[in-house]
């Protein structure tokens, strides 16, 4: 048993060393330098919370925080609910479900450059189908603040394949006997989802939303 644990630590050692050197140590140094003023040449001078006070006073930071909050409020629920909906729709082993699962996961493996080109085509003000459908005629969508933010949200939701795959695997792990028992108790349709599926998928959905 002791040799087994020693072997596990040996396997973990490269990861732990890399995480310490590349993540933990830089994070600690960054946190320490946040309380100082330092230009890389002269010695660091402790200034306490002055840097944070100055930072919070910048209007650029306030706009950035507002944009980030909007992105999280829109993209996270849409990604989680979209992955859940696709998993429930495609979890059965049918002939049409197989290509559907491939299509749902495919956007997640596309290169970022390819995804960007797809959305540039969609929102093109001259021939983009999305811009034409929304009757956007007052300028490019990406030059409008709201349009640009919603496009970023759409790109994040477009690549929801990982969440779909995890939710699909979790749905398939739900024992069918639980659905049989719920049906015997009179549950149907939405009742099965509310009483069986959703409670068992909540931990997975919470992990995806985190």
Features:
210 residues, two-stranded antiparallel ribbon, 2% strand, MetI-like fold, mainly alpha, single chain
Spatial shape: extended
Tally of helical segments: 10
Instruction: Note the beta-strand portion.
Output: under 5%
Overall mean pLDDT stands at 86
Q: What oligomerization state is this entry in?
A: single chain
Instruction: Kindly provide the radius of gyration, computed on alpha-carbon positions and rounded to a whole number of angstroms.
Output: 24 Å
Binned, the helix content reads over 70%
Number of strands: 2
CATH topology of the largest domain: MetI-like fold
Please describe what this structure looks like.
Helices cover 74% and strands 2% of the residues. It has 210 residues and is mostly helical. The protein folds into two domains: 2-56, no CATH class; 64-209, MetI-like (MetI-like fold), CATH 1.10.3720. It has a two-stranded antiparallel ribbon. Helix 4 (97-109) packs across helix 8 and helix 8 packs across helix 10 (190-209). The longest helix is centred in the N-terminal third of the chain and has 32 residues, at 2-33. The protein starts with a helix and ends with a helix.
